[in-house]
Specification:
It comes from Methanobacterium spitsbergense. This is Hydrocarbon binding protein (Contains V4R domain). With 188 residues, the chain is an alpha+beta fold. Strands 1, 2, 3, 4 and 5 form a five-stranded antiparallel β-sheet that branches. A hairpin with a 5-residue loop joins strand 4 and strand 5. Helix 1 packs across helix 4, helix 2 runs parallel beside helix 5 and helix 3 packs across helix 5. The radius of gyration is 19 Å and the shape is globular.
Length: 188
């Protein structure tokens, strides 16, 4: 007996944007959780293989891909030159997959620190699908999937603020990662 999968086919016109999928898509949470775990395994395997084949170049490749994705996500946010406002707006967009907050040491008055033509802010990433994928697949942090997140964050900030940015790792851990976002005023 031959098994055939039947699907209802619909023509999709225009550009597909996953962020426009309505929250209510049907199906139970167990269906989504199982699909997510399969996707996590697939992405983890792909990341590991990419690193094996490309070596350190894998980080640069996925950083650029993430940056492109971040620029697209940033287009959904109102433009601003206020870093704290941009972080708040972006946390609502990016926070769905990469929950983060601005962080400061107890002895620091403001979240942002001005250093010449640069502004620095610490970001603490808590519930991160990248970190959860790496943990689930037994892969180390600071690899290609982490660089995808770095690029994503930087791309979104650059899009919203119209400036150049970079993200550096301060600490990675099983429950949270601390990063330093530096934006450079005076051009892109």
């Amino acid at each position: 007996m031959e098994y055939q999968i039947e699907r209802e086919e619909k023509e999709i016109l225009g550009d597909f944007k996953p962020e426009l999928i309505p929250d209510e898509c049907g199906g139970g949470i167990d269906d989504y959780e199982e699909a997510l775990h399969v996707l996590m395994k697939f992405v983890g395997s792909m990341s590991s293989a990419l690193e094996q084949v490309s070596g350190r170049g894998a980080n640069a490749i996925v950083y650029q891909a993430g940056k492109r994705m971040g620029h697209e996500a940033g287009k959904m946010v109102e433009k601003t030159d206020d870093l704290e406002k941009a972080m708040q707006e972006l946390s609502e967009i990016l926070g769905i997959e990469f929950f983060f907050d601005m962080w400061k040491p107890a002895d620091q008055a403001e979240y942002t620190v001005e250093k010449g033509n640069e502004t620095v802010v610490k970001l603490i990433f808590r519930d991160c699908v990248v970190r959860q994928t790496l943990r689930r697949e037994g892969l180390p942090q600071k690899g290609p999937l982490c660089y995808l997140l770095y690029g994503y964050t930087v791309g979104a900030v650059e899009e919203v603020m119209g400036i150049k940015g970079k993200l550096d790792i301060d600490h990675v851990g099983p429950n949270a990662c601390l990063k330093t976002l530096t934006i450079k005023w005076g051009g892109k």
